[in-house]
Structure formats: structure tokens, C-alpha cells
Amino acid sequence: MSESRILEPAPKPALLFYCQHALGLGHLVRSLALADALAAEFDVVLLNGGRFPDGTAVPAGVRVVNLPPLGHDPNFQLVSHDEQWTVEEAMQIRRATILRELVDTAPVVVLVELFPFGRKKFEFELIPLLDAVHAMGAGRPRVVCSVRDILVGDRPDQEAHDERASTMANRYFDAILVHADPQFARLEETFKPATPLAVPVHYTGFVTNDSTPIVVPDAERVRRVLVSAGGGMVGGPLFRVVVEAHRRWHAEAGLETLALAGPFAPDAEWAWLQEQAATLDGFTAVKYLPDLRVEMARSAVTVSQVGYNTTMDILRAKVPAVVIPYAEGREDEQRHRGRRLDGLGVVHCVDPDDLDVQHLADAVLAAATSTPASVTLDLTGRDTSARMIAELCRLGSPIGAGA
Questions:
Q1: Can you give the pLDDT at residue 403?
Q2: Which of 6, 54, 157, 227 has the highest CB neighbour number within 10 Å of its CB?
Q3: CATH code assigned at 357
């Protein structure tokens, strides 16, 4: 008599994924989307170095290790976001935790978000991690860099920064995945080292949880301007202009305003915004929306900064959009992205140096009577990235041909 046995699925190899968001939530959102796709092939451990907002959904098959949260203040100084630890104490705990996870997880791939093209302040933990990986010898994990479409390119020491990043990438990494459509942005446009990259560079397309357009029935659309500022930590200046500009677009076009403060909005800013909502006709303030993408698609106009993930939402929602790039300090990435999108006819871009009530109101009123241009950009980067990393793991060699 024969016996039948239920075979257990073979265990998946492990992947260790390092992500650090400093001011906003963009890096975390993109990393969670990638982790979700990667979980089909790997047991994913996500090392999260920033604050993890309450209610953030963790994909099935992904284990999040929340390190003592560090970030930047508006002056780009490193700060601890948990009062029980100083920056120095958090650094020590984080470094030890990361190295312990490397040993305990025994990954076949270590995926590092942005570094060495950014995150220099986090070298205290990333260099020890990369050195530990390479000390494992021939059987070590593959090391992959995950990087967005446009890099910061306005540092005082930009040439030295790029040269150092190229040298470190060549030393430590096996592949670089650029999450962009090369028709929109290429790495060499904002990265110009004297020493060329020897490590293969691959374009994955843009990363979003869902690449399909957001379709909203006409009956569900509302005559409103939806204003958001990412995590909200640096949204105060935008909201102060919006409050005054609202009076004009409400009076002239009957547009209401829904202001989304964001989970990291400072208490004083949030309290002020609530006070405005209590006195202004047609003005509502909330700190959270369960589905921002759908609410964007329901709106007559969206007003926002132009971070990576917000851009994906705008492209999918196909809604008239006004963007004001975040450009404090050395941050010029959003300014480049906003101008390119404006040139394609996808958004109305207001230069941050021109942000005032008149310019914003004019842009919103113009957007409200316009139709965004239809552009074809590759938004399949989530699944393409997972496929490329799995291929790298299986082949044991660089992914296909380079860029």
C-alpha cells in the first residue's frame, strides 16, 4: 500500500534590506513596495532606520526590525527621534543590531537603499555592515544598491562626493538598481565621478505598489484642492501659503480645500492648521487619509511637493497637479523632477523661490481648467527589481548586461 506525504515548501533564501528615511517617508514607502515584491522569492528582513508611523502596513513575508530611529532636523543635523537614546547611544545600538541581524539572518542578498550615493551620515553602521559581508569570502551575500531616479547634485563638495561614491560602489557592490525609466532620468545626469562605475547599473522602471491607473467614477469626484506635504515634517511653509490662497480659489472657482498635514507634522503646525480649518469656509484639515491615491484622483487639483512617491501617485491618478519642490539646503532633487514633469505637461511646477499666495493661486486656478498630458513611463519597477535581484541570486553573477 502506497503512502502519500504532503511536502513542505522549500525554505526561501533570506534577504537583508537596509532602509533609512531622514526627513520624509518616501524612502520607506518605496522600500516597503520593493520588500512586498521580494517576499515572493525571499524571506525579507527590513532594517528600518527612521520613524515607523503607526498603522503602516507591513507586507506578508516581511519582518521589520525597527532600529532606534535617527533622522535629520530641518538643518540636516542628525537627531534621535526617541528620547530614551542620545544620538551616540542610538548609533551604538543600531550598529550592533545590524551586524547581529547579518549573522542571524544569513542572507544571500544584502540590499542597501541609496548608499553610497547618499546617507553619508550613516557610514558609522553601513561600512561595518559591508566590511562584514565581504569578510565572509567567496560565499558571501550579493550586495545590491537600490537608488531613486534623481540624486542630490548641489553639494559644496560634489566632485569629491561623486568620486568617493563611485569608488565605494566599485569596492562593495555587485549591482546598482536605478528605480527610474531611463527616458525620464539617467544616473549619469546627476552623478559624474572621475572614476567610472565598474559595477553594473540597471534601470528597473519607477517603483509603485500598483502600476495601473487609478479610475474614479465621475460621480465620486469633488470640487476641491487636495494639499499634502509627505510626512509633514517640513510642510509648514506650504500650508501657510495654502491657507491664504484658499480664499481666492474658493471665492473665484468654488474649490474647497482638504489639507493633509501628515504623520510627522509638528504639534504646533498641526494645531495652527486645525484653527484655520475651524474658521475658514470650505477648508478641512486632517492628519491621515486611508487611501491618498484615490483621494487625489477624486480631487479637481492636487498641490504637493514632488517627491518620488508623490510623483508616482500623480502619474497614476492623472489629476491636474501643482507641485512645489522641496529645496531647502542642498536638496535639488525635487526641483529637477518638478521641472522635467512640467516640461512633459504632467504638472504645473511652482519654483519654491516664487512660492507666494498669488503664484500658488494662479497655478491652481490654471490647473483646475487643464488636462494633464498623457505620458508613457515605465512604472513596473517594483516587480522588475524583484526579478533582477532573484536572477542575480540564482546566477551567482552580475545581472544580465549592464545599462
A1: 45
A2: 227
A3: 3.40.50.2000
